[in-house]
């Protein structure tokens, strides 16, 4: 069985997001309207020990259509509020008293409470790697602009939903990791061949799996196999 060429997306889009870096390939710049159209306003928790930065961030979020449901000046309070409020997203500064943002991210992401966006500085590359290991989905580099905020949030929400979907499909840790690897490679194949963004590629795999009553791992493996067959045929063509 060969899957038909994807045709139900609006291809293309900007793949560069100034001021925002995700922990993997970036799917493209979206908008709050794209993410939130027809849905409830996303609820965001902010943790930043500098009051002025926290205030500016809260104002940006409200202006962009998000609800700020809680604010914290340290990581320990952030974890407690996240557990109590169950927000859709948590934004954490790395440098905070009592409990730093990395430890808080590990608690929040590890508990599957919400996706995490980390606030960092250009000189903290080693901390960014630790943030990724702690489970953060994306990060914002200080000083950041309002135009950087929405893409970072969309990346975090998209990646978090992907992981949740894959984990609901596969119970075992080893199988889960292998499934994620296959899906990531298949997404890359679709992005290269059909100029999809990363979220579009994942949604296509997810929808195709549902339509064909297959797992996402099976769809991903089929995409990769067809790509190898096509590459082999081109290589042998005189």
N-end to C-end Cα span: 27 Å
Major β-sheet profile = 6 strands, mixed
Tell me how many strands there are.
6
Strand order of the largest sheet: 1-6-5-4-2-3
Structural class: alpha/beta
What integer value in Å does the Rg equal?
Answer: 19 Å
Question: What oligomeric state is this?
Answer: single chain
Structure annotation, total helices:
9
Strand and helix order: EHEHEHEHEHEHHHH
Helix content: 40-55%
- Bin the strand percentage: 5-15%
Pick out its properties.
single chain, 238 residues, alpha/beta, six-stranded mixed sheet, 9 helices, 55% helix, 12% strand, elongated
Report on the architecture of this protein.
- By secondary structure, the protein is of the alpha/beta class.
- Helices cover 55% and strands 12% of the residues.
- It has nine helices and six strands, in the order E-H-E-H-E-H-E-H-E-H-E-H-H-H-H.
- The protein has helices spanning 32-36, 51-63, 75-85, 101-110, 125-134, 146-169, 173-194, 198-211, 216-236; strands at 20-22, 43-47, 67-72, 89-93, 116-120, 138-141.
- A six-stranded mixed beta sheet has the order 1-6-5-4-2-3, with helices on both faces.
- The longest helix is centred in the middle third of the chain and has 24 residues, at 146-169.
- The protein is elongated and about 55 Å long.
């Amino acid at each position: 069985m060969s899957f038909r060429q994807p045709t139900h997306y609006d291809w293309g889009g900007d793949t560069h997001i100034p001021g925002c870096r995700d922990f993997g390939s970036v799917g493209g710049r979206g908008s709050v309207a794209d993410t939130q159209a027809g849905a409830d306003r996303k609820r965001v928790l902010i943790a930043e020990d500098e009051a002025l930065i926290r205030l500016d961030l809260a104002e940006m979020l409200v202006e962009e259509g998000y609800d700020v449901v809680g604010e914290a000046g340290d990581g320990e309070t952030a974890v407690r509020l996240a557990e109590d409020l169950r927000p859709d997203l948590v934004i954490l500064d790395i440098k905070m008293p009592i409990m730093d943002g990395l430890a808080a991210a590990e608690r929040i992401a590890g508990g599957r409470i919400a996706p995490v966006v980390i606030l960092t500085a250009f000189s903290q590359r080693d901390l960014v790697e630790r943030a990724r290991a702690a489970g953060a989905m994306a990060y914002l580099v200080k000083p950041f602009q309002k135009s950087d905020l929405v893409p970072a949030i969309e990346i975090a929400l998209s990646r978090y939903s992907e992981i949740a979907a894959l984990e609901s499909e596969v119970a075992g840790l080893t199988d889960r990791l292998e499934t994620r690897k296959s899906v990531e490679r298949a997404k890359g194949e679709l992005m290269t061949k059909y100029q999809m963004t990363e979220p579009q590629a994942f949604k296509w795999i997810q929808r195709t799996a549902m339509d064909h009553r297959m797992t996402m791992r099976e769809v991903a493996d089929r995409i990769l196999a067809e790509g190898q067959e096509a590459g082999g045929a081109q290589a042998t063509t005189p």
